Amino acid sequence: MIASTSVRSLSSAAVRPAMFCRQCEQTADQKACVSVGVCGKTPETAAVQDTLLQTIKAVSTYCVAARQQGITDLTTANEWTLDATFSTLTNVNFDEDRICDYIRQGQAILDDLKTKVRDVKSDIVSWNTDGLNNDELEDLGMTVSVPERQKRMGDDDAFSLNEIATYGMKGLCAYLAHCHALGKYDDDVMKTVHEVFCKLADSTPDQDGLLQLVQTVGETNATVLAMLDEAHAETVRRDD
């Protein structure tokens, strides 16, 4: 599983690193970048990306409930989910202000959904970034960093599955954002995207459920890649 020993050793030493990022093959010592990213990512950017990821999970949880309650006009939430998730990929966006803008956009979407959706059952319903400045958003990100989330789950193997699905979703949403830019869209895929992020918000160490989630991410990614291939082919045909 994904380098769970590196998190455990940091936790046992009661050390809070300046950052904890291990989402690419350049990761320091094959464990994690804990002071500054090998790619150049700063601790500040890493922290607000963690805040943004948690906001994505919160918005997704409400989107899942919205669909269950018959609310289907989720265009703004759908587009924001793709762009915001894409922005957390390594080497995509190191602009802390831009990441904080995504967080504030997500909070506005979340506030709107809360006026329409009833009885959402999830710990993440209490997530709120309203009124926080950039420094406070950084501080909030430290509370949902990789080591902190692993401690809450309390099971290294289950958390590794959670991480695999998380990084898979970042790539999937990047491809899907490209599809959307080329005019290709599938609401069933967006439904799956929100369902996956909703599951990732849950800190229950459900190994079987998380293994199935990883498989769902892989299957959906294959669907999205086929969509992207067709979107490019249609673009070429139009240009010809």
* Count of discrete alpha- or pi-helical segments spanning 4 or more residues: 9
Main sheet summary: none
Which radius of gyration do the C-alpha atoms yield? 18 Å
Compute the separation of the termini in Å: 47 Å
Strand content: under 5%
Number of strands: 0
Shape: globular
What proportion of the residues is helical, as a percent range? 55-70%
Q: How would you spell out the order of helices and strands?
A: HHHHHHHHH
Uncertain parts:
1-14
Overall structural class, as computed from helix and strand content, comes to mainly alpha
Mean pLDDT: 91
Task: Give me a quick take on this structure.
With 240 residues, the chain is mainly alpha-helical. The chain has helices at residues 4-12, 43-68, 75-86, 96-114, 134-142, 146-153, 156-181, 187-200, 207-239. It starts with a helix and ends with a helix.
Molecular structure report:
The radius of gyration is 18 Å and the shape is globular. Helix 2 (43-68) packs across helix 5, helix 2 (43-68) crosses helix 8 (187-200) and helix 7 runs parallel beside helix 9 (207-239). 65% of the residues lie in helices and 0% in strands. It is mainly alpha-helical. The chain has 9 helices and no strands. The longest helix is centred in the last third of the chain and has 33 residues, at 207-239.
